[in-house]
Amino acid sequence: MCSFCNQNKITGQAYQPTPFEVERILDKAASDLGERTKNAEIAFFGGSFTAIDRTYMLSLLDAAKKFRDKFCGIRISTRPDYIDKEILDILKSYGVTSIELGAQSMSDDVLLANDRGHSAEDVFKSSQLIKSYGISLGLQMMTGLYKSDIQKDLYTAETFVKINPDTVRIYPTVIMKDTKLAELYLNGEYIPYCLEKSVNLCSKLIELFEKNNIKIIRLGLHYSDSLVNNSYGDNYHPAFKELCENKLFYDKFIEKANEFSNPNEIKEVIVNSKSLSKFLGQRKSNVKKLNELGYNFSVCFDDTLQKYELYLK
């Protein structure tokens, strides 16, 4: 098992669903969603789907296939070393439309130190295979793993850009109890990123992926009482993505403000109206910090701007 894994405590679940339960869940979802099922996916997450018992995997796919016409697709997550042509032939025949690979890092020394059991080359090969089958590719990365650092995390993100997946998920490492990573932490061998360091890094990753038209479909772990009660450190925050977006806008403001001679020259900040709360910050934290630096401005809107664009005048 990899150094950070304690799936039961992350998800709060300790059982595998039966095919009957999958059918029941999908039937209820279809009924509740109505026409909205056309924009919803059937998803198998919480483990390495193609690494589970083959008979069990097929039984779940059989259950999902009965509802395939009602939903827009089937999405699975798995390991990079459990993808080959035989598996892809099976997944394609069942109508799987999206595969996410838990790459976590593209540095082999980090993968080895965290007992991942696969290499960066496995990620390259599996990604290429998935794309060749016309299946949407997603890549998942973790920041702040044991033996990683900011430069290695940036390298992972930059390598993802070269692979060019359709989507990415970014998970700052959270130290779950009863894991190897927890032992390393308690022994002082592993020093995790603090929340501020994670936010600073991930704000840069948002800009990198957005600039390259790679959709971020998740930034930070979903909240659960089990996760909060069974983890160490302060790297988890329920509104992590919002913090990162606030930091991104703050840094953009400072960067553009440096082009002016003094703070009094800046009268207006122009953003997309949908990005107002991201610019203002939680409880207007960005505005308060900028006011303290001598910047006083009004906020105007231009909805032709991209989500993270900002102009000063």
UniProtKB/TrEMBL annotation:
UniProt keyword Phosphoprotein present: no
Q: Which cofactor does it need?
A: [4Fe-4S] cluster
Which keywords annotate this record? 4Fe-4S, Iron, Iron-sulfur, Metal-binding, Oxidoreductase, S-adenosyl-L-methionine
Write down the top EC class of this protein.
oxidoreductase
| Source domain of life | Bacteria
What are the EC numbers? 1.3.98.3
One molecular function GO term is:
coproporphyrinogen dehydrogenase activity
Q: Which GO BP terms sit in this record?
A: tRNA wobble base 5-methoxycarbonylmethyl-2-thiouridinylation
Q: Gene Ontology terms, cellular component aspect? A: cytoplasm
Locate the Radical SAM core domain: which residues?
1-215
- The protein's name is Oxygen-independent coproporphyrinogen-III oxidase 1
Q: What is the lineage of its organism?
A: Bacteria, Bacillati, Bacillota, Clostridia, Eubacteriales
| Gene behind this protein | hemN_2
